[in-house]
Amino acid sequence: MAKLLGVGIIGCGNISAAYLQLAPMFRGYEILAVADINMDNAHARAAEFGLRAHTVEDLLTASDIDLVINLTIPAAHVAVSKAILNAGKHVYSEKPFVLSLREAQELGAIAQSKGLRIGSAPDTFMGGSHQLARNIIDAGDIGKVTSGAAVVMSSGMEDWHPNPDFFFQKGGGPILDLGPYYICNLVQMLGPVAKVTSFTGSAHDTRTIQNGPRDGETVPVETPTTIHAVLSFTNGAIITLLASWDVWDSNHPIMELYGTEGTMNVPDPNFFGGTLTITDRKSAPVEKSWDHPFNIPNFEEVHANYRGAGLADMALAIADGRTHRCNDAFATHVVEVMTAILEAGETGKVMQMTTHCERPEVLDPEQARALLA
Fold first, then answer.
1. Global model pTM greater than 0.85
2. 147-170 core/surface letters (b: 16 or more CB in 10 A; e: else)
3. What is the C-alpha to C-alpha distance for residues 265 and 301, in angstroms, rounded to an integer?
């Protein structure tokens, strides 16, 4: 049996609880310790899950920690990931991986020089429904995918989040916050993006917090909150991506792909599972399913939540000497696509991609079960 990787977490906010709750489901790693710049947060999370609480500096020097999960705010991702790599440890980052192509390439160079691995969320594209979509495309069941649409729309974060400021600052917005789920899934199904363009804007200059102790306080909007983008893929597919926090209601399908022989409706890539349908030339929509463990609802009896699957795959890939699915080339390409979309909105240009990645290896039902404890 491969050695369990000892794992630590930097950043003890809300998302850390999800990683800690689900970690026992998976093989390949064991979370041993947590750290935070606020030691009260670290001690509280450590007590909740029976772990060690460290300062960030002590976690980075701990001899039993092989890999560190970076759960800090997006603006801190590059600095914290760099410190993890320079401490001689593998890093797995929450999304977005970093906020610029230059930062992604800098981290990649450090990791390569030290023989270390980089991984990055999201891993929802490894979910059962999204892997079924990949299988259907690869089998040619809807023919050649020529176009499609992906839509992520809501009224914003200020209605429910008590401190939504960072969502509306540079490095936030719907493309960098939610775009990773959608673009990762499109790339894993269709391959890399060749070029993008977009139009962007914002409905409001400020947002008013609607809950919590700051109820009624306004925060400035410093990044586009409505983005209409077009992605041209190297395989010839053209996908429209609509992302907005200025919409009260929408009936758009979340993700549809249009092939020469049929249409596929793909469920929300923010989740691992959901209903997938195909409509061909001769039939009404037909629901498709398969016996994939990451399609089974396990959260509020509605959603499939297997956060940590990408980390387990990375841990086992390190032991096996193979490429992990949430790898740095994949994450770097997605970062370039997202930041190019935002730059195109500012400049009106068509942005040519300079990075390339392979589609992550398929995760079929048997391979998914192999990640589970």
1. yes
2. ebbbbbbbebbbeebeebbbbbbe
3. 22
Token pair, residue 268, equals 């929300």
The residues, any chain, with a CB within 8 Å of residue 328's CB and separated by 6 or more, are 97, 104, 107, 108, 111, 117, 118, 119, 120
Are 204 and 256 a contacting pair, CB within 8 Å?
Answer: no
CA pair distance 327, 100, nearest whole angstrom: 17
In one-letter notation, the amino acid at residue 297 is P
CA distance 229 to 233: 13
Strands 238-244, 206-208: pairing is: unpaired
How many CB atoms neighbour CB 178 within 10 A? Answer: 20
Q: Are 81 and 103 in contact (CB under 8 A)?
A: no
Mind listing the pLDDT tens digit for each residue in 182-205? 999 999 999 999 999 999 999 999
Cα–Cα distance for residue pair 240/373, rounded to 1 Å: 39
Cβ proximity of 211 and 159 under 8 Å: yes
Q: Give the CB-side neighbour count of residue 231, counting CA atoms within 13 A.
A: 31
pLDDT of residue 3: 78
